[in-house]
Every structure is written in C-alpha cells, then in structure tokens.
Amino acid sequence: MPRYAAFLGSINVGGNRLTMAELREALAREDFVNVETVVASGNVLFDHDERPTRGLEEKLEYVLRDRFDMRSIAAVRSRDEVAAAIADNPFAKDGEPNMVHTMFLESDADPAQFRVLLADHEGRGPERLALGDRALYIDYVEGAGRSRLTTQFIERRLGRRGTARNLRSLARILAKMDEQA
C-alpha cells in the first residue's frame, strides 16, 4: 500500500479546532491505514489503496465535512510528490528553510492568473514567487507572519485554494514517510 501525506488547511486556527486523535480515529474508520499526524497543524501521513491523489483529497474533505463540519482543503501528495515539492522549489538553494514555503494548490494554477498575482503583489513586499506543479513556491524572506502576502490574497488571485508548509516541515514529513517505507 502506498504512503501519502495530506496537508489540511486551516486546522486548529480560526475556530477549526480538531484534536489529532479525533482526526486519526475518523480516518481509520474510512479505510485509511497507519494514520499518523505530524505536528498539530493538519499534516497527516497514511497508507491507502493506490488511487489518484485527487480522489483521496475528495475523500478526506468529505470526512472533514461529514464528521467535523469543517470545510478545509486537503492537499494529498505521494512520497515522490512531497520530495518534488522540496527539490523543485527554486528558492530552496538560497532561502532560509523556515521562510521558503510550498503552497499546495487544489489544482494547477493558470499562468495568466499567476501573472495577476505577481502584478497585484508588486510593491507589497520582498517575497519571491514561482509557479510549480499544483504548487506555488514562496520565499517569505522576512517571515510569513509579517507578510502582506496572505493565503486569502493568493487564493483570490489564483482562483483556487491552497495550504502552505515551509521546507523544514516538508523535510521532516518526507523523513517520516521514508521511515515507513
């Protein structure tokens, strides 16, 4: 059975309170196997019969809605896709691992919408942006907490939801995925 990582958006922020024990139990009831959470911020590792990640995303989003009344993005990636989210990030080589993020998107962003994002962000801050495969790469340079480049700002311009993790967290998640292999 392949191992997957799910990156859930807006968990344990803004009223979306959920214990990781509750989440693990709910997923185990829905045929997710070896469910493990990494940090209490919506990172879930699991094994599942092989299927397209979009189908797993839909299944996870359904569980969140049905069991917990939460409408959250569930970006699911295979082990190789998590590795690519690190390796393909153009800011990984010269940015700080805690400042450089991969925002996992629910689908590929349209290049024209990405150009709108770049234009609308011009002059708002020092962040660097690049488009990836179902991902947006961001170097927050001065920190995500200080940035005016918010998830809502990005989602409005790209027309799709996303959830971001920094390179340090992604490396930790990838190492945990490899432990199970």
From TrEMBL:
Gene3D superfamilies per UniProt: SP0830-like domains
InterPro entries xref list: DUF1697
Pfam families assigned: DUF1697
Matching PANTHER family: BLL4334 PROTEIN, DUF1697 DOMAIN-CONTAINING PROTEIN
Protein name: DUF1697 domain-containing protein
